[in-house]
Amino acid sequence: MLSAELYPPERLVAAQRATAAVGLDALLVTPGSDLRYLTGYDAHAQERLTCLVLPARGEPTLIVPTLERPAAETATTNVRIVDHPDGADPFPLVARALDGDPSVVALSDRMWAAHVLGLRAALPGAEQRLAGDVLGELRMRKSPAEVEALRAAGAAIDAVHARMGEWLRPGRTEREVGVDIADAILAAGHATVDFVIVASGPNGASPHHATADRVIGPGDPVVVDIGGTMPSGYCSDSTRTYVVGRPAPDMAELYAVLHTAQRAAVEAVRPGVTCAQVDAAAREVIADAGYGPAFLHRTGHGIGLDGHEEPYIVAGNDRPLEPGMAFSIEPGIYLAGRHGARIEDIVVCTDGGADVLNTTPTELAEL
Ligand code: ZN
Ligand code: ZN
Ligand code: ZN
Question: Distance from the CA of 196 to the center of ligand 2, in angstroms?
Fold first, then answer.
């Protein structure tokens, strides 16, 4: 896929328009997903300042350390680049790139505190706000090219789940299985492994258990939640629950409820339905079956250049879904000291409902 399709230069213009519309003078964006979204530049976050200065009106400037200039020039051709030699104070360059004294600027949400304070000193008259309020709105509606990048990420992580029978066996530890999975995430085409959860038996009751030295036993349910970032910049994230052998009757019963809940939430997705309503669709099924308190978390999160981003599928979020919004549907049931289960697919809201990007079976998989 062409990078210009995934990272079109018009995005800078759209971001400037959105910046002006909310009365901000400029966005100041340091390395991370916001910078990549705006310029295509996958910059390295470090102590030396890299900062896109995007004024509400006027020419954008990308400030980079001199040693990063070649990389920046290769990555992005549509922004003026200004570099600073190693050891020089880069923050005055930000003030210089802005026409006049700004009164309100917005900083990328995950900017290092050292840079936040450096910018405050360089722009003493400017109130600092969060750029996420502007960029989150743009980023949560995916272009067709972004949806295809997420679909490719989904196919890559599905290919890893499809191989789980090679690795999940009684007598192996979660950690050993996790190492095999991490290798396979890269082999499937991801640029990085972002997380590997292999939660067997009672560990399955902890939603964000990573891996441990627990030996997987016969009949254990195992929650496997895995994801990575593709060379495109877009993320994968999918959970399946496996049983090594045959499930105990209480596990089979719990899973049947979870499966119904996950499908109900996927089927609830369409434009105009709120994030809270999608959450409720899963939660009602689980609560009606008596597992309400065991569903410990929100139903899902947006996904794109970050593994977790807007929109959040959570009670109280009355944002209506729109075509192009991409997010996880991942209800879980967690019984402390016993076991747990989760099913997670990434879906995209379309005019006709949910486009489900993960296609491996969601039934309890017996290995
Ligand atoms: Zn999570
Ligand atoms: Zn997730
Ligand atoms: Zn996940």
Answer: 12
User: Tokens 């996958």 — which residue?
Assistant: 42
Distance (Å) from CA 207 to ligand 1 centroid: 7
Cα 225 to ligand 3 centre (Å)? 5
**Residue 108 alpha carbon to ligand 2 centre in Å:** 22
Taken in order of first residue, the domains within the chain and their CATH numbers are: 10-139 (3.40.350.10), 144-366 (3.90.230.10)
pLDDT of residue 1: 45
27 confidence band (pLDDT: 50, 70, 90): very high
Ligand 1 mean position, distance from CA 278 (Å): 17
Q: Counting ligands in written order, which one lies closest to the CA of residue 194?
A: 3
Residue 54 near residue 60, CB atoms below 8 Å: yes
What is the average pLDDT across 104-131? Answer: 97
- Cβ proximity of 12 and 38 under 8 Å: yes
Name the least confident of 95-99, 162-166, 292-296, 333-337: 95-99
CA of 82 to the centre of ligand 2 (A): 38
Percent of the residues in the chain that have a pLDDT greater than 90, as a whole number: 96
The model scores a pTM over 0.70 = yes
Q: Is the pLDDT of residue 204 over 50?
A: yes
Q: Which numbered ligand comes closest to the C-alpha of 342?
A: 3
